[in-house]
Amino acid sequence: MKFAQIPGNDALKKALVGMVSSGKIPHALLFHENDGGGAVPLAMAFLQYLYCRNRGEDDSCGECSRCNKLGKMIHSDLHFIFPVTSGSMSVQFLPAFRELVLGNPDFTEADLNSTLGIENKNTVIAVPEAKQLLSDLSLSALEGGYRSVLIYLPEKMNAEAANRLLKIIEEPPQQTIFLLITHAPEKVLPTIRSRCQQFRVQPKSARTAVLDFDRADLLSDLMEAVLSRDLLAALEVGEQIAALPGRENAKEFCRYSAEKFRTVFLYQQGLKTIAPEDEEAAAWATKLKKSYPRLALDVFDRTVNRINRNVNLKILFTDLVDRLYINF
Asked: Which of 89, 135, 149, 264 is most deeply packed, by most CB within 10 A?
């Protein structure tokens, strides 16, 4: 895939091209996308530019043998890891993964699970994946040049798998590059996240509906009450959220709130350059303890899961308010 085939994110594409052109290529890159944000094709376009035999000033040639293999995602020195069910490994699903990426580059996590036939199941990147990757990377590159590893949703790595890969991500073999694509950077093992150069993949306008949630005032009012330590006011906002028309609106509130707190997290981590411009989130970042965004994200994730199980909304949002208030 060529950069020219991917709309938007021009500044990010320019930065990626600049790395290759200058020869200053980080050993690990972390792309933060919204679910369905198109980071995988961007990562693949970057690798194609890196591998290309006849690269131009701003894009790969798209015609050489290496471009052909990268374009089909079949280069033998390119490794993929993504969440699957316990007891399985990515390689078992690789043909389906390739077909999904090439046919629907802006796929969501739900699209992936549906394609793999594992929807409604818990998915994980487990220890066997880490062991297999370490074994693969102990061998020389089969085609010479770079070896690359694309890890989709590193936040799905269990603790043991993440710790096994930490050392090699921190100090990879020569000409080995890791590309990690996350929906929730705050859930990636901090020691792994800190070893990566981080980039924010800006969502396309078609995907910003959750960020344009038309009752954003509810979260603002809720956090104003929490920051003011006014539990009664916070509970009143919780009742307003529970009264939103339909369960889908309740879930959209949670998704909007989760994205807002990811922005707070980025501000607190000193990553303003990859965070969306958000004065409100920046203000919250100075008032909340650094552990709060992660706690809040867990609360919103938990609430969405329970909405899907048809738990009473008033009970759910009373509990949500209590948890946000107590953890402040």
From this structure: 264
Which residue among 147, 180, 207 closes a domain? 207
Interval 59-105: pLDDT, tens: 999 999 999 999 999 999 999 999 999 889 999 999 999 999 999 99
Supply the CATH number for residue 298's domain: 1.20.272
- State how far the alpha carbon of 173 is from the alpha carbons of 34, 103, 313, in Å: 31, 33, 51
Query: Are 198 and 216 in the same domain?
Result: no
| DSSP-derived 3-state class of residue 94 | helix
Q: Which residues pair with 179 in a beta bridge?
A: 29, 150
Task: Please tell me whether residues 246 and 174 are part of one structural domain.
Answer: no
Name the 3-class secondary structure at 79.
strand
Across the beta sheet with 197-200, the strand order is 78-81, 147-152, 176-182, 28-32, 197-200
Compute the distance between CA of residue 325 and CA of residue 319 in angstroms, rounded to an integer.
Answer: 10
Kindly report, residue by residue over 216-252, the tens digit of the pLDDT. 899 999 999 999 999 999 999 999 999 998 888 898 8
Total-model pTM: 0.74
Whole-Å CA distances, 97 to 72, 119, 137, 180, 318: 11, 14, 21, 16, 40
Q: Total domain count for the chain?
A: 2
The whole-angstrom separation of Cα 13 and Cα 312 is 45
Query: Both 283 and 183 in a single domain?
Result: no
